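This section describes the prediction task in plain terms. A model, or a person checking by hand, is given the sequence of a single protein chain and must write out its three-dimensional structure as a string of tokens. No templates, partner chains or ligands are provided. The sample shown here is typical of the held-out split.
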Amino acid sequence: MDYFLTEEQMMIRDLARQIAEEKIVPVREELDEKEEFPWEIMKVIAQSDLFGLFIPEEYGGLGKGSLELCLAVEELSRACLGVSTTYAANALGSFPLLLFGTEEQKKKYLPDIAAGKRLVAFGLTEANAGSDAAGIQTTAKLEGNAYVLNGTKQWITNGGEAEIYTIIAITDRAKGPRGASAFVVEKGTPGFTFGKKEKKMGIRASVTRELIFDNCRIPKDNIIGKEGIGFVVAMKTLDSSRTGVGSQGVGVAQGAFDEAVKFARQRVQFGHPIISFQAIQHMLADMATDIEAARSLIYSVARYVDSGAKDVSKESAMAKVFATDVGMRVTTNAVQVMGGSGYMREYPVEKMMRDAKILQIYEGTNQIQRNVIGQALIKEAAKKK
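The expected answer:
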């Protein structure tokens, strides 16, 4: 379909596709096997200015929006979700600064982020605080001109590799959800260390580690916004990032679909390519329809986000849940179309299927997304009375 992209948007898409095909595809199997962080690819992405895609021009970026970011993430995801997760998580970690940072913070951090000199990570999840963000145990206590952080963040993408971390911590537990605040913490700060590198089913090129704060003192000025808006920062950040996760679903689905079609044209059974069999055609037809529907939703919601709409929670949740379910379904069916070959590491679809599963889990499970959508529908219905 023609999504009426501008010439500049098509250039961004084509540039990301070129990086995916020339730099990622040749090494994706090795990165997966060795569980190796893709630093060389990150350097290429930095040189291409894609790290600055969503950063305003006054801070050294290109000043583009959610749609342009989705276009880049989708193309990188067609090749490898591990690599695209590293890139997308950098945007996730940057959104608190973009949305709520002071002018001083933006001037200090955003130019290096835009240039790809320093990676970013977002620290919200803990052992007892995943979907239940109110269960956060990490604390930040004001002592003079410094906040002292204590606690542990779990399963943090880019953990240990990133230089800049945006962290949600409790500053006043008595206030409940209004007692959380957001902070920026730099790698190398005394009292800030990392746990072991996690062993994962998929996205193995992406690094996941614990963040450990043990009397970690940061300047008072490192608070993002003000005390008590930590949950607002977190929720608005996730509202902004979920179209990106959805675009990962579209990308990995497209990559798996392309492999399945190529295989079905070459594989001969009973004297005919299997793509000539109605059973295979119907599977491919459903896969293609799912991908196009997911892409349409992602692009539409991304444009809605870029319009400046104040409340995009329901729409971003819809985009994330639908497109990532499509990603899982299409990669699974791609393995099925390819049969035994699809199950073998010689072909990339088994990796795509392993990788796709995380999309239904991180940045809010798809069950939680359905809760978000349901609650929004209840509010809308109440307003109509």
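For orientation: Strands lie at 120-123, 139-143, 146-157, 164-170, 180-186, 192-194, 208-219, 223-224, 268-269, 272-273.
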